[in-house]
Amino acid sequence: MTLISRSPQRPGDVVTKETATTPETVAAAAVRARAAAREWWSQTAQTRAAALGTAARGTAGVAAELEDIIVREVGKPRAEARGEVARARSIVDYYAQVTLLRTGDVLPPSGPGLLYTERRPHGVAGLITPWNFPAAIPLWKSLPALAAGNAVLLKPATPAMACARLLESVLRSALPDDLFQLLPGGRNTATAIIDAADVVSFTGSTAVGRQVAARASARGIPVQAEMGGQNAAIVLPDAPVERTAEVLVGAAMGYAGQKCTATSRIIVVGDPEPLTEALLAAVQRLTVGDPSELSTVVGPVIDDTAVAAVRDAAQRVQDSGGEALAKWEVPAEGSFAAPVLVRGVPAEHPVNQEETFGPIVSVLTAASAEEAVRIANGVSQGLVTSVHGRDLGPLLTVAGSLDTGMIKINAPTTGVDFHAPFGGEKESSAGPREQGVSATDFYSSVRTITLAPPPAAG
């Protein structure tokens, strides 16, 4: 099967073509990877850190090329693509150093001798990644897996294959043969990777993530699945209107809302009109168009199916008696969806319960902070929530009542620190957190070792 990646802003621009990896090829790649992993783990930590340091320098060397490919292949606006490349470089630098952290603890033994723990790699890490962060997510999965001593089999999303190939060229030039292997493909390839790997990490939709987690769990291997988010922003009455509106529109509409951390619901405590007017004005000021321009905030969505999803969501709001306020001036060519601000439908409406993954955000009203928390928590997912206001007491009270894995106070739902744990609650995540030292813990397991003194001679 031939896989084709097209530029969403110019569908006639075929960025790359690949042949899908067959299950038989995946199985053979896993055998080679397992042998490479054993050799990799036998090296000193300093040797592994040096190799990853070489990869970091290689990533810096292709920064401009990687930025251009991200813009072209997935339509990410240049300013955000530049930020993602900077983050990618930081991720590789960080894990080169994490390789040198302690791998265990010394504990008090119950008798003479030594009692200690040691973290050891699982072996082969099977990684399945999405298209919306085509550099950052493959690296924030691959690098901790490598730092922990594993080999990597990476299946990127089809719309991000060219980005993945560039990352592969950097990593393979810095690492031993077969330690990092790129395996493009579809469902059959992903299934084969899950069946061959010793540990699996997935980022994508909730429906697919559940299947990945179930299949890996049935094999008894560690699995991590980062899935969707229907993220809320709670706006308290003392929040500064204009500044808050700018933050929320950026979090909802940046990169056309194609982030699992994008704000999907804005819950206003008290009178919603001043903030709604400010939100609409901020939406109207957005620059929609060519993602190669630094001024562009909203580029294309990934394909025409995504365009239809945004328009369908707005239409369902109108069919239910709500309003869809939109800026419809979008380029004629390409998969562009106009930013949409909707209001007038209840918290139970599908637009407030189901992730659209596009530039659409709903405004809801709550009579109290307690009601706002109930609305925010009243979805099946629990990735990130933001809270906005001036008085620290109410801000902390609301934050302490939220059931999301990440909580932002006076900050957008989007944007995460690469060295901090990342993940959600409920249907947003399965398994341990990603990023930071937590990630290397996931890609390794603990051995407890007892060393008793040798028997006395005689």
From TrEMBL:
<feature type="domain" description="Aldehyde dehydrogenase">
    <location>
        <begin position="7"/>
        <end position="449"/>
    </location>
</feature>
<keyword id="KW-0560">Oxidoreductase</keyword>
<dbReference type="InterPro" id="IPR016161">
    <property type="entry name" value="Ald_DH/histidinol_DH"/>
</dbReference>
<keyword id="KW-0520">NAD</keyword>
<dbReference type="GO" id="GO:0004029">
    <property type="term" value="F:aldehyde dehydrogenase (NAD+) activity"/>
</dbReference>
<protein>
    <submittedName>
        <fullName>Aldehyde dehydrogenase</fullName>
    </submittedName>
</protein>
<dbReference type="InterPro" id="IPR044638">
    <property type="entry name" value="ALDH7A1-like"/>
</dbReference>
<feature type="region of interest" description="Disordered">
    <location>
        <begin position="1"/>
        <end position="20"/>
    </location>
</feature>
<dbReference type="Pfam" id="PF00171">
    <property type="entry name" value="Aldedh"/>
</dbReference>
<dbReference type="InterPro" id="IPR016162">
    <property type="entry name" value="Ald_DH_N"/>
</dbReference>
<dbReference type="InterPro" id="IPR016163">
    <property type="entry name" value="Ald_DH_C"/>
</dbReference>
<dbReference type="InterPro" id="IPR015590">
    <property type="entry name" value="Aldehyde_DH_dom"/>
</dbReference>
